[in-house]
Every structure is written in structure tokens, then in C-alpha cells.
Design goal:
Length: 275
């Protein structure tokens, strides 16, 4: 004769089903959250890689006039503000270039010589014309000094450096980047091997010239609600500057012996918004 389930057995079965259901829901949520965090992290990685590629292309298209002299109007400038792990201690760099890298193909200056400044700005930063809406990598650009209109060129009362925020509003290149550090290898005479990175320095005090190599390090923001590490994740690239030799002596093309350019030195222009 078949016996019916007792109340205790029914309660045990109900509890067991509840436990298995709770475990299934918790496992599903954990996997779903992990997938979402990984997707967010990969998205930030792709945007950071895009920004790095833009800077690499911009540095490789660096412009320096072949006119037999060195000039501050075209020199590379590095303002070292720290180790670049947070927006407040990130570096600022600027240089003159040609091409669409950083500024975009639809920008009017893309086909001419122009100067760019690259920096990390933090959400709520009010140092500029309008408050910054999102933390990320920003750039400002201005036309070459020789391409300004006669009216602007003759007006000595206007500050055309990047310190004038009214003229050069920052444009977002990529969000999700919370830190930027730049180091330079000042000359090819410092290189002991292709992989030697020990001689890269935080300062570049010859802003009427350009360095031999530039090391770029970006730090990504961790996915929201999750911190994978004590410090933010770094991505690094090293760029060799093609016009290094020409910039050392404006009268000499790269690889050519001799030359009679002016090798006068100059002080580094420092600080956020250095001009």
C-alpha cells in the first residue's frame, strides 16, 4: 500500500527546492555581473587603445620647419605634474603637427600645420570656459602662427597661447581614461639597446626642439562597482619621433651630415595649459 508524504518530508522538499533556486539565481547574477563588468572593461580598453593610437599618429606626424633654425613655436613641450595615476597628477604635452590625427578629418586645420595640447581633465573641472562633463583625455588645437589672419597676427593684445581658454576649448578624445604619464628619451645618444627604457625622463627642458622618443602611459578607470587592482590599469606605447634629427638642426635633413642651424636652448614652459 503506497504511503503519502508526511508534512516533514514536504517541508524538507520545499526548503531544498528553495535553496537550489536561490543558488541558481545567485550564480546567474554573478555570471551576468561578471559578463557586464568584463564587457565594460573591454569597452574602456578599446577606447583607451584608440586614444593611444591617435596620440601615436599625432606624434609621428609632428611638424618642424626646415629653415635652418630652432624655434619655440614648434618645439615639443612636456609639463610634468606627477606619476599620472589620477587626473590631478597627469602630465600635459603639446607639439605642432600636420594631418587628421587627434583633430579629425573634418577639422579645417587637418590639412595645415597646427599645434595641439593633450591632457586629462576631470568631471566638474571648471578651469576652462565650461565645466568638464566627463573625465577623460582631451585635446585643444590652434592654427600655426603663420596661418593666422593679418588682423589676428597684428593684434599684440591677444594671448594666442593655450593659456587663453576662451580661444581653445578642450575637445574629448576618449572617456574612461583617468591618468596620463609622459616620459621622453631626449637624444639618440642615450640609447643602449632597442628595449632599454631606463633612460626615459620626466622632464624635457628644450622646448625649442623635440625628443628622440616619447613614452606614453594611459591609465583606465576600473569598471563601476569593481576595483581589480590598487592602481588603475596602465597601457603604454613608445613612439620614435621621425623629425628628431631635423629638429636638432633645422638646416639638416634627417640622416644628413653637418648643417648650420642654431642650437640655442630654452626653458621649458610648464603647467596645465602651458603655451
Amino acid at each position: 500500500m503506497r504511503r503519502a508524504f508526511t508534512m516533514v518530508e514536504m517541508l524538507l522538499a520545499t526548503v531544498l527546492v528553495g535553496v537550489l533556486t536561490a543558488l541558481s539565481v545567485l550564480t546567474f547574477n554573478s555570471v551576468s555581473n561578471g559578463w557586464q563588468i568584463s564587457a565594460d572593461y573591454m569597452d574602456k580598453m578599446q577606447r583607451t587603445d584608440f586614444a593611444l593610437n591617435q596620440l601615436v599618429a599625432g606624434l609621428r606626424s609632428m611638424y618642424y620647419p626646415h629653415d635652418g633654425s630652432q624655434t619655440y613655436d614648434y618645439g615639443f613641450v612636456l609639463a610634468d605634474n606627477g606619476d599620472g595615476e589620477k587626473p590631478g597628477d597627469s602630465d600635459v604635452i603639446e607639439w605642432s603637427k600636420t594631418g587628421a590625427a587627434i583633430v579629425g578629418t573634418k577639422n579645417a586645420v587637418a590639412d595645415t600645420v597646427h599645434r595641439v595640447q593633450v591632457m586629462i581633465l576631470e568631471e566638474g573641472d571648471s578651469d576652462y570656459k565650461e565645466p568638464i562633463e566627463v573625465t577623460g583625455l582631451y585635446a585643444r588645437q590652434c592654427p600655426d602662427v603663420k596661418l593666422r589672419s593679418a588682423e589676428h597676427a597684428s593684434n599684440q593684445d591677444i594671448d594666442y597661447s593655450f593659456a587663453n581658454d576662451e580661444l581653445y576649448q578642450p575637445v574629448l578624445i576618449a572617456d574612461g581614461i583617468v591618468g596620463f604619464d609622459c616620459k621622453v628619451l631626449k637624444s639618440n645618444g642615450q640609447v643602449e639597446s632597442e628595449s632599454d627604457g631606463s633612460k626615459f625622463e620626466d622632464v624635457f627642458d628644450a622646448s625649442n626642439s623635440v625628443p628622440y622618443k616619447v613614452q606614453l602611459t594611459f591609465r583606465m578607470a576600473d569598471p563601476e562597482g569593481r576595483s581589480y587592482r590598487t592602481n588603475t590599469a596602465p597601457l603604454m606605447r613608445i613612439v620614435t619621433i621621425p623629425i628628431y634629427e631635423q629638429a636638432q638642426d633645422g638646416a639638416r635633413t634627417p640622416g644628413e651630415e653637418g648643417g648650420g642651424g642654431n642650437r640655442g636652448g630654452g626653458g621649458l614652459r610648464r603647467g596645465r595649459g602651458a603655451g
